[in-house]
Design goal:
13 helices, 4-stranded antiparallel sheet, about 400 residues
Length: about 400
């Protein structure tokens, strides 16, 4: 028989969101008549806009004609889409040949982990999107999990708490090869300022580290002073890669379309190009994003698409305001929800999973336990603002009946 990959054996449990799904299912089985509402996983709920649907359906119909048919395309994606992302979403701070499109940011994070291998040292914000840590564990870039500290050996956890304005004290951190950084942050909803990101970039340059910057929620930034991309920061082209996605701004969670920007200026210790290797990985284990979906992406970033994107984002941000008001009325300390679709609520002295269970079993509302995002998330709960308006209102009315 085949020996199990020992790295997988290091993971103490399953991936966070399926685990939440299992608990939701168990609750439903115990309460067959209950209407469970999810403010849990950040999954979009509102239909695609007509303009995007038009782009998709035309492309799909075209595939049924000799003139419109296409098979495999370039692994990196349509030139037109790469160009549109560079100009419309990055204001030409990056070039089209530095943008590689894909089937989503999560998948690109996994492939970046393949790119860097298992000899790298890693730092993550604590709390953070679980893929950074779990994927690093699976690659073999970490040691074992320690139940007492809830940390993996070999990973540097950068605590991000209300007490430090959700930005780590970099002077106290050791050098690592990779630094995962997500802004607007999942799960805290915190957005790093330009000054904070400048500190991060300077830290990475001084240490010859590479930042893997996740901007999956950048479309949620309303404040014009806040940076939407790491490439707005001087020096970032020499130390950062950015992963991003069409999932959250236009609801492509099911369609699947994302991209990664790897600047030409980014080099390894020996001076060779990281982009060249990234291209090697993408051409080897990826075969290009779906052609139909890329046409949807093109529609999403033309002028009409961008206006509709703002409306979609605005809808979810109104949900965020409703959840925030509910928590304020309940006297619960909370953060985020302004330039990000997540609200991060604190329940002092309580365990995240206990609060999660109470909310699920007493209000039939699913949320996400903060401890699932790292040890510094213990005592917090993440509320997602992705949901139909009526459901969000009903969920908040039920929550208000609870006391903590
Ligand atoms: N990056 C961040 C920071 C995310 O929060 C998510 C989704 C992704 C990337 C995934 O982007 P795709 O382009 O759709 O691949 N986070 C959601 C969904 C859970 C999951 O496992 O992806 C969440 O609820 O945290």
């Amino acid at each position: 028989m085949v020996a199990r990959n020992s790295n997988l054996a290091k993971l103490p449990g399953g991936y966070l969101f399926p685990e939440i799904g299992r608990r939701r299912k168990a609750c439903q089985e115990q309460n067959p008549g209950a209407k469970i509402i999810s403010l849990g996983i950040g999954n979009t709920t509102e239909p695609l806009t007509p303009h995007i649907t038009d782009g998709l359906t035309k492309a799909a119909a075209g595939l049924g004609t000799p003139a419109g048919y296409s098979g495999y395309g370039d692994e990196q994606g349509f030139d037109s889409l790469r160009q549109a992302i560079a100009s419309k979403l990055y204001n030409n701070l990056v070039t089209a040949d530095e943008v590689l499109t894909s089937d989503g940011a999560k998948c690109d994070i996994g492939r970046l982990q393949l790119l860097f291998g298992n000899q790298v040292t890693v730092a993550v914000q604590d709390p953070s999107y679980p893929v950074y840590v779990d994927g690093s564990v699976i690659m073999g870039a970490t040691g074992d999990f320690d139940q007492a500290s809830m940390q993996y050996a070999g990973i540097t956890y950068m605590p991000c708490l209300p007490e430090n304005q959700f930005f780590p004290d970099l002077t106290k951190l050791p050098r690592t090869d990779l630094i995962y950084f997500c802004s607007p942050n999942n799960p805290t909803g915190a957005v790093a300022t330009k000054a904070q990101l400048k500190t991060l970039v300077d830290f990475a340059l001084a240490n010859r580290s590479i930042i893997i910057f996740d901007s999956a929620y950048s479309a949620y930034i309303a404040d014009p002073e806040l940076p939407r991309s790491i490439f707005e920061i001087e020096g970032a082209r020499r130390c950062a890669i950015e992963v991003s996605s069409f999932s959250k701004p236009v609801g492509f969670t099911g369609l699947r379309l994302g991209w990664t920007v790897c600047p030409k200026d980014l080099v390894y210790d020996d001076g060779s190009s990281v982009l060249k290797d990234w291209n090697r990985i993408m051409t080897t284990v990826f075969n290009g994003a779906s052609n139909v979906v890329q046409h949807g992406g093109l529609a999403a970033v033309d002028d009409q698409g961008l206006a509709e994107m703002a409306a979609t984002v605005g809808y979810y941000m109104e949900n965020a305001a409703i959840i925030e008001q509910c928590l304020a009325d309940m006297g619960i300390e909370h953060y985020g929800g302004h330039n990000a679709p997540y609200i991060w609520a604190r329940f002092p002295g309580q365990k995240s999973w206990d609060v999660f269970s109470r909310i699920l079993n007493e209000a039939f509302v699913v949320c996400t336990p903060g401890s699932g995002f790292g040890p510094a998330g213990e005592g917090f709960i993440r509320f997602s603002s992705f949901g139909h308006r009526a459901d969000v209102i009903e969920a908040t009315e039920r929550l208000k009946k609870l006391s903590f």
